[in-house]
Amino acid sequence: MADELEPLGRSSEMKANNHVVIIGGGPGGLAAAKTLARKGVSVTIIDENPDLGGQYYRRRTKGTTELVGDYRVDGTHLISSVKKLGCTILTDSYVWGISNDKRSLLVENSLLGKSTRVNFDFLIVASGGHEIQYPFTNWQSTKVMTPGMLSRLVTVDAIEPNGRRAILVGSGPFLLAVTSHLIDSGVVVDGVFELTRPYRLTVFSMLAVFFPAKCAQFLHYRFKLFSNGVKLTQGSRLRSVQDSYDGITATFDKRSGGEQVVVESQLLGVGYGFKPNSEVLEILNVERGESTSFGHFYPRVDRYGRTSQQNVFAIGEVSGIEGFKSAMVGGVLSGQRILRDIKGVKGFASMYVTLVHYLRSIYEELFAKFLKKLYRIDLEDFPLLDPEVLLCRCEGVYASELDGVLSQCESDMAYVKAETRIGMGLCQGRMCGTALGIIVKKKYPKSISPGFSIRIPFRPVAIGSIIALESEENRDYIDG
Ligand SMILES: Cc1cc2nc3c(=O)[nH]c(=O)nc-3n(C[C@H](O)[C@H](O)[C@H](O)COP(=O)(O)OP(=O)(O)OC[C@H]3O[C@@H](n4cnc5c(N)ncnc54)[C@H](O)[C@@H]3O)c2cc1C
Asked: Bridge partners of 44?
């Protein structure tokens, strides 16, 4: 937990502005924006997508909505209330860096190809996370995607699922949620393959009874799988996928007994949980929280989402606690804390809201810790890659190219990057970074926190956009 921080210690001009900028228009960012804007605080929300909503409340396009109706109506209400409260909303806008004085964000509008500086007095980073992949033979097949993308195709984009079959592979409770979404959308699920063994009845797994609502949700998913004849297999490791005429053949190693299982289907969703979109926090030198088995960067935050940097908050999935409800709890608490800094403690209602959300966040954190232990993945759970496996899809680097380089550099990821170009492509290591970290760690167990270091721009942006930002006359500011 971060130490108690001083209230605003900036110039009087800044105190007068109290402009709050929120990166990410998902459930966390929206809840924070609503909490602040309804009390008259000036709020700007920046999101790279065409509309607000983030992962959970992702919007259907206008055409799809007209055709099949709205999706997650509570999200529609939340987004429209935030819009009505007069927040400045920058969509199609990606935060690719921070100014040298660390007081403004560098933001590119992808439609205009133009960058802007957005000043902030308070910054709430609610940038969520993205799904973790681990390569296997032919993972570049167009029939292979993440569970989130598979779910999005059939739910948000409402792509006709008739005749579609799929298998879900990886680890985490998210696989069950996605399986449930797929079944509801008419997809036939040919099996769920969990890498670990969380569903055995053990003394530890019985602690789930202390989270009755979550238990009920799990039983609901489990019953849905059962009643739709979906087999849930634990302890299976995906080895390879072969494309067939109208689908795929996936081969798994059963970790106990070593036998192989072959399953045919049409699509495959594979993911091993989430990696935080932590670039902004890392570049701001926010202190790191507890280390995780993948070595991902999670910030050290207190219950209000305050980081070690003054006036910088991190909430929702980027702070390590998954699920849309916990993101919203974090959003409300960070909003309440900023209101307290700006306006002082006011009224019983505000204290009551804070207390309820505070208690709720303790509950969510305990549950997150329980899940982390239940689905614990170890390095041995991942196989070493066969030489012909494509490791970096953007730059076309194969696993075989790693051998010589790794023996020269030990665990220096920057060296591996420079020598092989792994992680230098469009996605900047989003797809391959975790996998490379696992491979390096398996080879050099004593290496500390392997991972690519974060550089500005976080993602490729138009060069003209950066040049224009440097020219005084074209310099735009969005300020509170
Ligand atoms: C398909 C799917 C189904 C899910 N189902 C469930 C479920 O049933 N129950 C549940 O509890 N959870 C579910 N989840 C998880 C849930 O969506 C997340 O826990 C929740 O959305 C996290 O909220 P957040 O506000 O922290 O981040 P997000 O919702 O991830 O929002 C973050 C936003 O920030 C944007 N962003 C990130 N970096 C930048 C940047 N540099 N510049 C600009 N914008 C940026 C992202 O594009 C995104 O729009 C699901 C997730 C997916 C993908």
From this structure: 21, 88
pLDDT of residue 480: 52
Tokens of 428: 């900047």
Determine the Cα–Cα distance for residues 85 and 90; give it in Å rounded to an integer.
15
Q: Assess whether pLDDT exceeds 50 at residue 350.
A: yes
**C-alpha 29 to ligand 1 mean position (Å):** 10
Cα of 15 vs centre of ligand 1, distance in Å, is 31
For 78-90, what is the mean pLDDT?
A: 97
Closest-lying ligand 1 atom to the alpha carbon of residue 152: 1
- Into which CATH architecture does domain 12-130+275-373 fall? 3-Layer(bba) Sandwich (3.50)
> How do residues 362-377 score in pLDDT, each as one tens digit?
999 999 999 999 999 8
Tokens describing residue 427: 């996605």
Query: Quick one: which atom of ligand 1 is closest to the CA of 107?
Result: 42
The percentage of the chain sitting over the pLDDT mark of 90, rounded to a whole number, equals: 68
Per this entry, what is the length of the chain? 480
Query: Given pLDDT bands bounded at 50, 70 and 90, which one contains residue 409?
Result: low
CB 421 within 8 A of CB 392: yes
Mean pLDDT of the 44-65 span: 96
- What does the mean pLDDT of the chain come to? 89
Q: What is the dihedral of CA 180, 200, 270, 436, to 10 degrees?
A: 150
pLDDT at residue 11, as a whole number: 33
Class for the domain spanning 385-443 = mainly alpha
Spatial distance between the Cα atoms of 155 and 153, rounded to a whole number of angstroms: 6
Tell me if 23 CB under 6 Å of ligand 1: yes
- The ranges assigned to domains in the chain are 12-130+275-373, 133-272, 385-443
Q: Whose CA is nearest to atom 48 of ligand 1?
A: 54
Q: pTM (2 decimals)? A: 0.92
Mean pLDDT of 139-158: 93
Which atom of ligand 1 lies closest to the CA of 331?
25
Q: Is the CB of 26 under 6 A from ligand 1?
A: yes
CB 90 within 8 A of CB 107: yes
Give the integer Cα–Cα distance in Å for 235 and 247: 24
Evaluate: CB of 169 within 6 angstroms of ligand 1. no
Please state the CATH superfamily assignment of the domain spanning residues 133-272 in this structure.
FAD/NAD(P)-binding domain (3.50.50.60)
Is the beta carbon of 24 within 6 A of some atom in ligand 1?
yes
Give residue 477's pLDDT: 61
pLDDT-based confidence at 415, cuts 50/70/90?
A: confident
Do 133-272 and 12-130+275-373 have the same topology in CATH?
yes
